[in-house]
C-alpha cells in the first residue's frame, strides 16, 4: 500500500513538473508582447532606409532631365505613401495578432508547442529512469523495512497482549485458589477455636465436678469425724452417768450394750 501511494505521488510531481514550462509560457503573453516594440523599431529602421534609397533614386532621376521629372515625382509620391504606411504601422496595436506583420513572439499562447512537449517528455523519461535506477530501490527498501518493522511491532504487541491476558488469567485463578484456601483456613481456625472452647468448657466442668466431689468427700469425712467425736463423747458421758448412778464400774459387755443403745437413740 505504501509503495503504490509513493508511486502515485511521484508520478503526480513529475507530471506537474512536465506541465509547468508550458504553463509558464502560456501565463506570460505580455512578456512575449514586450518584444514587439523592438521589432517595430527594426521595421521603422528598414523603412527609413528604404525612404533614403527612394529619395536618392528620386534625386538621380531629377538630374537626368525634365523628362524624368514625373517619374521622380512618382517615386517621391511613392516614398511619401510608404512613409504614411509606416506611420499607420506604428499606430497599429502591437498586441493585435491579426496584423500582417505579427512577430513569432506574438503567436497565440493556446497554440500547441510540439517541440517543447517532446523535450519535456524526454526529460520526464530520463528523470523517471534515473529515479527508478538510483532512488526507487532505496526508497522502496526503506518503505519495506519500515513496513516490516511496523508489522513486527504489531506482532510483538499482540504477543505481549496475549501474554498479559494469560498472566491475568493465571493471577485470577491463583487469587480464586487463595480465596478458597483462605476460607478453608478460616473455617479450620473457627473449628479449632470451637473445639478448644468446648475442651476448655469440658475441662472446666470436669475440674468443677472433681472439686465438687472432693469437697463432698471432705465434708463427708468431716461429718464422720464429727460423728465419731460426738459418739465418743456421748459414750464417755453415758459411762460417767452410769457409774455415778450405779455406783460401780461398768463391765465391758455392759459398755458395748450401752453404746449401742445410745447410738440408736442418737439422732442422725
The pLDDT mean sits at: 69
Main β-sheet, in a few words? none
How does the overall form come out from the CA principal axes?
A: rod-shaped
Question: How big a fraction of the residues is strand?
Answer: under 5%
Fraction of residues in helices? over 70%
Number of helices: 6
Number of strands: 0
Structural class: mainly alpha
Gyration radius, to the nearest Å? Answer: 75 Å
* C-alpha termini separation: 123 Å
**Low-pLDDT ranges:** 27-46, 53-63, 65-72, 74-83, 85-92
H/E element string? HHHHHH
Structure description:
This protein has six helices and no strands. 85% of the residues lie in helices and 0% in strands. The chain is rod-shaped and about 185 Å long. The chain starts with a helix and ends with a helix. Residues 27-46, 53-63, 65-72, 74-83 and 85-92 have low confidence and may be disordered. The chain has helices at residues 2-26, 29-33, 36-64, 69-91, 114-246, 252-265. It has a domain at 36-93. The protein is mostly helical and 268 residues long.
What's the quick description here?
The chain is mostly helical.
Throw out a few tags for this protein.
268 residues; mainly alpha; 6 helices; 85% helix; rod-shaped
Amino acid at each position: 500500500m505504501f509503495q503504490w501511494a509513493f508511486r502515485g505521488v511521484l508520478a503526480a510531481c513529475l507530471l506537474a513538473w512536465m506541465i509547468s514550462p508550458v504553463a509558464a509560457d502560456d501565463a506570460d503573453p505580455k512578456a512575449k508582447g514586450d518584444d514587439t516594440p523592438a521589432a517595430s523599431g527594426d521595421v521603422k529602421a528598414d523603412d527609413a532606409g528604404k525612404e533614403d534609397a527612394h529619395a536618392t533614386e528620386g534625386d538621380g532621376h531629377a538630374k537626368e532631365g525634365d523628362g524624368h521629372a514625373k517619374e521622380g515625382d512618382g517615386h517621391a509620391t511613392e516614398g511619401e505613401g510608404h512613409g504614411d504606411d509606416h506611420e499607420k504601422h506604428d499606430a497599429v496595436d502591437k498586441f493585435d495578432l491579426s496584423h500582417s506583420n505579427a512577430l513569432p513572439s506574438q503567436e497565440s499562447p493556446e497554440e500547441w508547442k510540439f517541440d517543447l512537449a517532446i523535450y519535456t517528455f524526454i526529460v520526464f523519461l530520463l528523470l523517471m529512469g534515473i529515479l527508478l535506477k538510483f532512488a526507487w530501490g532505496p526508497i522502496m527498501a526503506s518503505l519495506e523495512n519500515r513496513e516490516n518493522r511496523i508489522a513486527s511491532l504489531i506482532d510483538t504487541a499482540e504477543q505481549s497482549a496475549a501474554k498479559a491476558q494469560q498472566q491475568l488469567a493465571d493471577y485470577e485463578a491463583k487469587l480464586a485458589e487463595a480465596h478458597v484456601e483462605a476460607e478453608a483456613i478460616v473455617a479450620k481456625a473457627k473449628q479449632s477455636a470451637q473445639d478448644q472452647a468446648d475442651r476448655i468448657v469440658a475441662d472446666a466442668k470436669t475440674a468443677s465436678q472433681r472439686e465438687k466431689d472432693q469437697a463432698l468427700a471432705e465434708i463427708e469425712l468431716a461429718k464422720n469425724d464429727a460423728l465419731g467425736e460426738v459418739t465418743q463423747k456421748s459414750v464417755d458421758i453415758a459411762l460417767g452417768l452410769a457409774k455415778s448412778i450405779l455406783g460401780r464400774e461398768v463391765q465391758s459387755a455392759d459398755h458395748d450394750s450401752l453404746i449401742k443403745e445410745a447410738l440408736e437413740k442418737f439422732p442422725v
